[in-house]
User: Fold these one by one.
Assistant:
Number 1:
Amino acid sequence: MKSFINALVSVILAVTFFFGFWVILDHDYDWAAIAPYSGNLFSGWLVTVGISLAALALSVVVAAVLTVAQLSSHRVPRVLSRAYVEIVRGTPLLTQILIGYYLIADAIGWDSRFGVGLVILSCFSGAYLSEIFRGGIESISKSQWLSARAIGLSEGQTYRFVVIPQAIRRVLPASAGQFANLIKDSSLLFVISVHEFTMQAREANANSFATFEAYLPLVMGYFILTFPISLLSRHLEKRFSYEH
Amino acid sequence: MSIEVHNLHQHYGETRAIDGVCMKLPDSAQVLALIGPSGGGKSTFLRLIGGIETPTSGTVIVDDQELPKEEEGLLDYRKSNGFLFQAFNLFPHLSALDNIILPLTEVHGWSRHKAEERAHEVVKRFYLEKHLEKHPEQLSGGQQQRVALARAVAHEPALLLLDEPTSALDPEMKAGVLDLIKELCDAGQRIVLSTHEMGFARQSADHVVFLAEGKILEEGKAEELFEASREPKVTQFLDRVMKW
């Protein structure tokens, strides 16, 4: 109930803010100019939702592989995965998209913009997610390992029955936050002409010259995706803090 | 119960937690108590006997079998034992019942049905029926320790190892847990425990080992060691701790 009230207050504040903005700007809105592009905007929004969901699933796989490599007792996978994470986190996503599409995908002859965009986004987000996963696994106390060892669980069983179930609860809030980032980051895919939401808004603007009318739905479209995730993330964080 | 220890060492860096211990337990002994000052090596010695740690050097022989040095063999040995720590070490994401069932199904290969039946028997014996579905954080310290004890004995271990089982409990809870351990002793369970409860050690143990600075200062039958210790340091320690 309390979180519902909080959500309601946030929505009212947001609406007031936008309305105030609207009044201050005193812009002469011409929604008719943008109307012919509303279908494109909506399909762009759907592409953003689709690519974000697909990248979420794929980035979990990427992150799982990286996490296993980083926790490995062998040096080579540890060093390689560490290097990967540092490089991905240390360079802008925009450059990764450009290099990924124009150099790497081109070299291997892959020209599906959606596919390449999806893979780049997943590789990018997977690096961040793997840091969250690793932190979650390493946060499980030594006493849990000791206890698992004492009752006769093998290392694999300890991960499966003791460490991972506890780590998942701990990483959920941060992972939800990372998903919100992923949705926003997908907007950069317009540089390789993936027909996602931002790309469609840019095209609508270019063709209609109705800048506000093209970009205001863009802001709202992203916000209605990320805001519930942000609420969910906060809710999960609170639930976790009660447990400990 | 036969336990033999030959020239046992366990070093952590510069610290010699166990420093050249030799011991041969009389076959008639059923309950062995490890006593002595904190940091004297009791817990480490217990973990070495229980196969939770592997020694730096030396051998431990339990029931005429030398404990293996490699993890696989040790895992089999640990499966046959039960272990209880001072800090409960239950799995916080599982209910009391599932904490007891997990090793039965996953380590000992019992069916879920058989494991549940057995778990219900044990919790009844330990007065935990009302708390089956609760998670550890919903239980008091004494209740948590009883669940941990139930988990340690549910598979009828060949050897039950108790590491200061009541150190973290208030006096009333302590008494409740000690009553249960006494019941297990009386029922013929073979037990090795490290404890600060001198009264309990004296009453329940057949054989007592006094450890300080990683060495055995004195060992012998409980009544002899408590009544007429030959070692001045042991007498001094016992006088001090049993004064109040």
Note: Chain B has a mean pLDDT of 91.
Number 2:
Amino acid sequence: MERRDYFILPLIVIATVLVVAVPVEAALRIFFPYSEADRCVVYGDPRPSAFHATANCASRIKVPEGPWVDMTYNECGYRSTDPCTPKKPGSLRLAIIGSSLAAGYLVPYETSVSARARESLTALCRLPVDVQNLGAEGNMGVRLTASAEAAAALDPDAIVLVVSPTDLVLDNSMDHATPAPGAIAKHQTGWIQELKVQLSRSRLLYMESYLLLRNDDNYVPIYRRSGHKADFMRLPLSQDWQERLAHLDRDIARVKAAIGPDIPLIILFSPERSQAAMLATPHLAKGMAPAHLQSEIARRAQAHGAHFADMSTQIVPGTPSSSIYYAMNGHLNGEGHALLAEALVNGLFDARIPAFEAACAAPPAALAQKPE
Amino acid sequence: MSVPSFEFFLFALVAAGIYNIVPVGAARRLVLLVANFAFLATFAATGYDLIPYAAFLTIGYLFIRGCAPIQTAWAFWFTVGATILLFCWLKKYTFLPEESFLHMVYVQVGLSYVFFRVLHLVVDAHSDERLQKLSLISYLNFTLNFTALVSGPIQRYEDYVDTTETRPRPLDMAVLGEVLERLVIGCFKVWAAAAIVAELQHALEFQVVEAPGLFTRIFCAAGLAALFPIFLFYNFSGYTDVVIAIARLFRIELPENFNKPFTAASFIDYWNRWHMSLSNWLKTYVYTPLFASIMRNVKNPKLLAYASAVSLFATFFLIGAWHGRTSEFFFFGFLNGLGVAVNQIYRTILQEKMGRKPFAALSARPLYLFVGRGLTFTWVAFTLLWFWSDWAQLAEIARGIGFGGVVAAALILILASCVALQVLISVDGLLRGPKLDGRPLVLSRYARTVFVTLLVMGVVTVQSVMTSPAPDIVYKDF
């Protein structure tokens, strides 16, 4: 081997990688576009107002592994096909609050939790049903209270707060006047940071990771190794997670205070993708407690007089988590929202909310759970 | 510990690093011994699981040191017979009574390959005085050599000693580059090529029974038969590439196991190119003694011409039967024996009728090679049906396409393999055409670097795309 080969051979390796990777990256950018920011959502309002969308706005978003999704908002800036006019007499109204998960982020409206819940309730109830979705990315903490006040002003028959473990992490940061979710890390300078940013935007790496992580056997072990992120499934709960639960406890109390005693509040829990994978495939959950956090949340909900509904119970054993979540992005997809809606409707009837009990026939699942 | 796996690579790299740092001689032998024990221990849940393995090795060593110096026929046959019987008993061959087996979980990984090494020493020790003084550490390092423990290749002791003790092979940057290249090629074969072919095979296994049209099912049957030899080649030769490369880090040169087996234009030639270390071992210890014995005992010169066919049949029947304990494997052995025996008889008859030189000229003709390769591949694929499948599955496939369908599938396979193998050979010839410094350009280190980089990218991509892990090494179970 000649001396020059010590330089030439590594250069050949780099050149080969580039020759292959650059056209593939270009092709992937064309065939798997990425447009994550919902331009309708207004961030950066002074606290304590909720993040909300511009009235009558429409935008299109997409993650590489999902379809193009139209995000359209009504005249109040809520994601609903129903007008946000005062509630008509002889009708039922449901208001949904929470973050991007509640808003049905990355999911076409007709497959989102609000549309699916509306469809189910319309089939079950004698009265017309409308659903106003006030969810928006980042709406936790103090912003959630503002959102609950807005929801209560719509005079709904029940308010549903959708929460997930990610929301609990978000909750903590929202109370500290942090920048809006889309505006993070823009201040970083230097070519190393720039390179990192560019690499993190690489569609090739994104798709490579997607293909790898869509398989639960690969994803869950990696997630379990990701330190504090997975600690909500480890017992005893870490200090951080106990604090997050305490924040949620405070949030529920604030929301309850904001909406008053007459409007029933339902806390609807949506598990994290890794949690769903462990619940569906128990051998992946060895040494973990994937159902613990929801029991803690249920306890806190009941302590504040709120009802609790859990999507975890709707997950059929053996379901690959990538069939109900966007594998890389982590939000629920349309199939996941179907389970969330099912949990919501069952939760409404389990809670025996008078307006719904009087006007609707309970779904079979709720009937099965009803005490004699 | 799986081979290949990242754990295995890490383990081997650490062991090789220490091995090359310590001085040549006893220290290196000791490092290798520790590595061999450590590797074997990864397959055991408790120390008890290794007791039968240790007993087999101990008895083998006692035979070599104790019985081999007794220069009598009974001592020879006793030690050889006892070693074979002990192996069959530990492997639980079904011709032995079930009640006699050990009803405990114990390590069997690589036992077949350890058996070949021990038996070779037991046999040779009767005629080789040096082996009768074999040290325990050399014996253990040879029989338990972790780089070749799981599925071979099967090395002769003389070759092993030559590369480890007499003339350790050099290890410089160029060799390290070749090691890396071979590792990548091996990993690509196992983790990408074999994995893809296995997926295709699973898809066809379903289609061959469920597809609505008869023609589709016939094509699927032909494809299914063709895919397993290709899968097995990638799976086993990939493993071999990996272990040969790893052994080279210990300055050990393991024997090659494959030499473009599908370019063989006859079944005998195929076995000269496939699992070469096993077929060479069996030729040395089964075929040659058996052939010599027939030559000594058969007086009729006409029958003598067929002695080789009989010996080949016995040898290759044993190769097949060695793979497993079920009737499918015995039939696989029978078909292999039949294939080489018929091939040998065909050669004998044609050589008698045409003469040796005209037959050699005929065998070298392009059309003869074209047809010979296709027929050989088809026969290989046919014999392997009893390797990967069972009687019930084969009967279901045969019922699904009927006798005519089976014949049609065989004809499709012959034609397709004739054409495909010719295309491969032509492409290979074209690629080797352009020269750089008198050598084919594709073999230059620059072209190979590009090739290896592409293979790495291929492995990463395939591993990401596949939803299930690549199949384990098939020969690990034998």
Note: The longest strand of chain A covers residues 92-98.
